[in-house]
Structures are given as C-alpha cells and as structure tokens.
Design brief:
Shape: globular
Distance between the termini: 31 Å
Helix content: 25-40%
Strand content: 15-25%
Radius of gyration: 21 Å
Number of helices: 18
Strand order of the largest sheet: 6-5-7-8-12-13-4-14
Length: 420
C-alpha cells in the first residue's frame, strides 16, 4: 500500500513534478538524481507529514473528469472525448513572431500564447522550465515576464524538471500568471487548485505540451559521452530541439585544448537514444497530451520532418477559457491559425491511442506481479485495449511488462543519491 510520498518514490511511481515540495516545503525539497530524475528528499529539518502531499500526487492517482461535466459548455463528441479528453477546438498554427516561431520546438505557439497573456490579458508572470545557465544539462524553474526572457528560454528540455515546486511564487502574487508544464505537472496543478483558492485565483491559464516521457540525467550524460563530450562541465549550451523543426540536438562546448566546438544530432537520433532512459512512471502514463490543462500544444507529426524549416504547432483548447485565449491570441496577431480540424490530433499522434490501449495490459501485468500501480479513472483503458490493439500487441503489453518487473527492479526499494 502507498501510504506516504516516500512510498511513491520507493515504488518508482513519482513523476518528479515537485507538488509535494510545494505543499509541504517544511518536509520535502526537490533534488536531481542521476538515474531517477528529480525527486523529493527529506529536508534537514523535516517535520511530520499531514498527508496533504500524498493527496495531490499525480504519481498515484489521476481521475479524468466525466464528459457529462462539459455538456453545458460545449457540444462534446463522446467518442472524441474517450480518445483524447476534453476538446473545445483543435488548430494547426504558428507564432507570427518569426524569431519565436523559429526558436520554438514546433511553431512557437506555446511561447506566443504566453507572450499574448503577458501583453494583452493582464498576466504578469510565466512560470516554466529552462536549462540552467551554469550547468546546461540540468533544468531549473524560472519566471519570465517579457518577450526577451521567453525567447531565450524556448525549446523542449528532454530532461527532469519539477515546476510545480515553485507554485509558491504564483500564490504570493496579487495578479494572475501563466503556468507551463508537462501533462503530469498540470495534473498536479489541477489537484492543487481544487484545495487552494489562492492558486486557483492566480492561475490565469495553464498550458501543457505533449510529452512522451522524461529521460534521466544519466541519459543526457551518456548521450554527451556517446558524442565524445566526456566532460559535461565543458558544456556552454545544450539545446534538445528548436531553431528549426523539429530542430537539432545541439551541444556547444570547449574541447581539451580550450577550443569552441559544436555537436549536432537530428531529433530522431537524439530522442531515439534518450527514450530508453525514461523514468518508469512514464511507461504507465495515461495522459501524454495535457488533458488537465487549459491549452495543450504538440507537434503535427503528420507533416514531413525537416530540421531546417520553420514549424507549425498543434494547438488544443482543453477548456472554454483555453479556447478563448487561443482565439484571442489569433485575433490580436500573436498567432496564425491555419486550420481548425479535430482530425489533426489523431493524424498527428496515431500511436498514442495504441499506447493507451497497451497501458491496460501493462497495469494488468503489474497487478499479476504484485507491483503497486497508480489508480487511473475515466480513461477507458480496457476499451482501447480491446478495440485498438492487435492480439499480438495485447499479448506484448502483458508479457513485456511482466519482464520489466525484474529489469526495472520494481519490487526493490529505490536508493536515491543527490546528483550535486
């Protein structure tokens, strides 16, 4: 039984969002680890927990709202909801600011929407993730307040981040803010805002980006070493994507002679290497498209990938408020919306329905193996397992996971050690 945040971590169910460190800062602090991502450690003066952190933990429970909850706001297609969650509109578009569009991971829509909220919607801050300047292979949570700061912090970061731990910044303000995070981060935020009115009031909009999982720091370091960058401290800058679509993994560093050097990999090469380092909880995640956000942004993968071209973004209005902001940004000239088409989602992410179907088989195998599993409600997992998987895929989802119980050491207590 999962009875504490420590149990969540030890059972490898932690997403690394940082929600527990925000809710109980007198007990937990987030730190980087080599193999498991960012994890909560007991602070030096840790006090006894009251259990609040466990209640908002997305690692052990996520409940999707019922489609009936949206009936009064939108004409919701039930089958579409079963597959993709709440949808008030699906668009393909891009930032009208060419610098933002080029620097962003796809079409710069997330940055453009955040900038619109700062300049036109009266929001004063954007809480999000950026690479650390002093240690470029690590991340930090930052607050951006203008275009310059947003632009210098564009691009995906395929490494651990815990932006929810910094919600206190938003709570202390007298104005609204933008929050940007992974689907698991916004799921934690959704839980927190239901028990914290100040956070709920101060969140002007919550934006998520599509996520296929978070690789560990070890993944990044091994990728650097694989490209003959043996001293990570020699790094001057590390971008995982951006500056073209889908963008190149680009490492800038000094060699042993002190000369500036650059290594580049395609998205396929870099992600193909990093994905095997994803934390275990990502393998059993039901939400890769930010269903608990107001707005979710991803890649229109149905298009041909070219690393030197400017991109387009797939933009989903998940709430009525989110759809209003998307349309407002377009009307104000921050975004160009080329098309509105619900089929864009399934055409761009056809593998995600299969992934959700496989999740039912994975959870079934874990229960057979007596391994702790999260509780997911309202995601129609069995329906997808029956309808969307071949018999071979059904069997693989069970047998493959059963093997991973041993490979991933899921029955053993995690031994954590701070990276720095």
């Amino acid at each position: 039984m999962i009875k504490s945040i420590e149990d969540v971590v030890n059972k490898q169910l932690c997403t690394g969002c940082g929600g527990c460190a925000y809710i109980e800062p007198e007990r937990f602090e987030m730190e980087d680890t080599l193999e498991y991502g960012r994890r909560p450690f007991l602070s030096d003066s840790a006090v006894k927990t009251d259990g609040t952190a466990l209640k908002i933990c997305p690692g052990i429970e996520i409940s999707r709202p019922r489609s009936d909850d949206y009936v009064n706001d939108v004409k919701l297609k039930h089958d579409l909801y079963k597959d993709w969650g709440p949808i008030y509109g699906v668009w393909e578009g891009y930032s009208n600011d060419q610098s933002i569009r080029f620097a962003g991971s796809s079409g710069g829509a997330t940055t453009a929407l955040a900038l619109y909220c700062l300049e036109q919607e009266g929001m004063n801050n954007v809480l999000h993730t950026a690479g650390r300047i002093d240690i470029p292979y690590l991340n930090e949570t930052v607050v951006s307040t203008n275009r310059k700061e947003l632009l210098m912090r564009t691009g995906s970061r395929y490494s651990p981040a815990s932006p929810v731990e910094a919600l206190g910044i938003i709570e202390q303000l007298s104005s609204q803010s933008v929050f940007i995070g992974k689907p698991c981060d916004v799921a934690a935020v959704d839980k927190i805002r239901k028990v914290n009115k100040k956070i709920d009031d101060n969140l002007g909009v919550v934006i998520s980006f599509f996520c296929a999982g978070t690789p560990s720091v070890k993944g990044t370091l091994d990728l650097l070493e694989n490209n003959k960058i043996f001293n990570p401290l020699s790094l001057k800058d590390l971008r995982f994507r951006g500056n073209g679509w889908p963008g190149l993994w680009t490492a800038k560093y000094k060699n042993e002679s002190g000369e500036n050097r650059v290594k580049k990999l395609t998205y396929v090469e870099s992600w193909g290497f990093l994905q095997k380092y994803r934390q275990w909880r990502c393998y059993i995640c039901p939400d890769h498209t930010g269903e608990f956000a107001d707005i979710a942004v991803g890649d229109p993968w149905y298009r041909k990938q070219e690393d030197d071209r400017v991109g387009r973004s797939l933009i989903i209005g998940r709430t009525k408020r989110g759809a209003e902001i998307i349309k407002g940004a377009a009307k104000a000239g921050y975004l160009t919306l080329e098309s509105e088409d619900e089929s864009l989602l399934s055409r761009s992410q056809p593998n995600l329905i299969v992934t959700r179907g496989a999740l039912w088989g994975r959870l079934f195998a874990l229960k057979l193996g007596k391994v702790e599993t999260p509780k997911f409600t309202g995601f129609f997992l069995f329906r997808h397992w029956i309808k969307d998987l071949s018999w071979k895929q059904k069997i693989q989802s069970i047998l493959g996971t059963y093997k991973r119980i041993s490979i991933k050491r899921l029955k053993k207590k995690v031994e954590l050690e701070k990276l720095i």
